[in-house]
Specification:
The complex is a heterodimer of chains A (287) and B (161). Chain A contains eleven helices and 14 strands. Chain B is α+β, with helices and mostly antiparallel strands. Chain B folds into two domains: 76 residues, Roll (Ubiquitin-like (UB roll)), CATH 3.10.20; 71 residues, DNA polymerase, domain 1 (Orthogonal Bundle), CATH 1.10.150.120. In chain B, a hairpin with a 2-residue loop joins strand 3 and strand 4. In chain B, helix 2 crosses helix 5. The radius of gyration of chain B is 16 Å and the shape is globular. Classes of the chains: A alpha+beta (287), B alpha+beta (161). Chains A and B meet through helix 2 and helix 6 of A and strand 4 of B.
């Protein structure tokens, strides 16, 4: 790893000033599990590393049945994975985070870090988008809120400018009739990047879908919502014929590439299979 | 420029002089002279560098040494109760043939210790899930899992948990 200057700002204001002044050659370090790998492999040149772990109030974690879930930028993947609130109310997120790297990685990695890395195949992003998550961003002035699905502009790229710091994430509380699922498809069970990831959050009563969000991972330059497929399902009774229609529609919405992990055609096929399955699981079907 | 980092390693207060780009792994092995923790892939894939930091297993290759300021670190060297007495996990790995070349073993044993500290009665699935980030390229995993299960059983019998 090449040498760098190291900073430990004690407040958001100090960190934001520093990052704005240092510009493109600076990076925040939170968990470091992606950043240090990229620096070691010289995929990224980072001359200034700004550690945000000395900044207070970024480790908060709260759940309220009305307000939902909210946690800070320094909350680790493992903390979210083992939280009874997440396991009970956001099973799709619990599942997705348990599949990210290893226990050792999850003990360091943060959810917000995984988001800001903006990988199209990030495990945490599809369920968070399906659940309607939004980010709080500090930029020196008042916090602004960005809906997670509007956060990404391309692989590794987000709407953030130098000096912007994501301080936390919030998710609305699940409705009384909601069902959720996340399916990660890979070549092996552990230590894997998703070939395709599908998250579904659905509101349903007696088989009738009143609202639904579907997020597809690793099949477009960013994680995307399958909006046409959602429109197809909304207000209708979910049956085998509609599921087949939804699968076909989701396949059309994906724009996968072929790479070392899978061909584009295979990814597209899997979007169909997994979308159908994930809707079934979210509706309470057997796994 | 080097900085002095204070941490507790295996119960002993240590002060290591490191550059900011030094990982905890390199600092333990070089400045700390504790070479039991192994450097395998150096990018968090293999788990050979697993140490327990403030009670949680981490890849020492993915932690900057300067971030360990004030931390409590446990490594394989701190596991034995005395020089001539192996830790129960080490004993069981020997009995069950849980090591072949042995390079991955310190990381696996530290991960197994972290698992048993948290969950004294893990199922086979839970052991496999916990060890998913530790790669062994020679012996296969069956004997490793047997050794961890045998340790858990014996600890339970002894009532030491």
């Amino acid at each position: 790893m090449k040498p760098f200057e190291y900073y430990e700002p004690a407040s958001l204001a100090e960190a934001s000033d520093l990052l704005r002044r240092l510009g493109k050659d600076a990076s925040i370090i939170a968990g470091g599990t992606d950043l240090l790998v990229e620096m070691k492999e010289e995929l990224r040149s980072v001359l200034h590393v700004v550690n945000i772990k000395k900044i207070p109030n970024l480790r908060n974690f709260t759940y309220d049945p009305a307000a939902g879930l909210r946690f800070g930028a320094l909350v680790t993947v493992r903390e979210v994975e083992t939280s009874p609130h997440v396991i009970g109310n956001y099973p799709n997120l619990a599942k997705a985070v348990s599949l990210l790297g290893s226990v050792q990685v999850r003990n360091r990695a943060t959810i917000v870090g995984n988001i800001c890395r903006a990988s199209p195949s990030a495990d945490t992003i599809p369920p968070l988008i399906a659940d309607g998550a939004s980010l709080s961003v500090y930029d020196g002035g008042a916090d602004r809120t960005i809906l997670l699905e509007d956060f990404f502009t391309g692989p590794g790229r987000t709407v953030l400018s130098p000096g912007d710091i994501v301080t936390g994430i919030s998710l609305p509380a699940p409705g009384p009739t909601s069902g959720r699922a996340y399916i990660k498809h890979g070549r092996r069970k552990a230590m894997e990047l998703a070939t395709v990831g599908v998250a579904v959050s659905i509101e349903h009563v007696a088989g009738q879908c009143s609202d639904v969000r579907i997020a597809l991972g690793a099949v477009a330059p960013t994680v995307i919502r399958a909006r046409r497929t959602e429109d197809l399902l909304r207000g209708r009774r979910i049956d085998a014929a509609l599921l087949a229609e939804a699968a076909e529609s989701a396949m059309q919405e994906a724009t996968p590439i072929g790479n070392v992990r899978a061909s584009a055609a295979y990814r597209r096929d899997m979007v169909g299979v997994l979308t159908r399955r994930a809707i079934g699981y979210a509706m309470g079907g057997a796994r | 420029m080097n900085r002095l980092v204070s941490m507790t390693v295996n119960g002993e207060a240590r002060e290591l002089a490191v550059a900011p780009n030094r990982t905890l792994l390199d600092a333990l092995r070089n400045e700390g002279s504790l070479t039991g923790t192994k450097k395998g892939c150096d990018v968090g894939d293999c788990g050979a560098c697993t140490v327990i930091m403030d009670g949680r297993p981490v890849n020492a290759c993915l932690v900057l040494a300067i971030e360990a300021e004030g931390a409590t670190i446990e490594t394989i060297e701190g596991l034995q109760p005395s020089y001539d007495q192996p830790h129960l996990l080490q004993q069981k790995f020997m009995e069950h043939g849980g090591a072949q070349c042995g390079f991955c073993t310190p990381g696996i044993i530290m991960m197994a210790k972290a698992l048993l500290d948290e969950n004294p009665d893990p199922s086979e699935d839970e052991i496999r899930f916990a060890l998913a980030g530790n790669i062994c390229r020679c012996t296969g995993y069956t004997k490793i899992i047997d050794a961890v299960r045998a340790t858990a059983e014996e600890l339970r019998k002894a009532g030491t948990l």
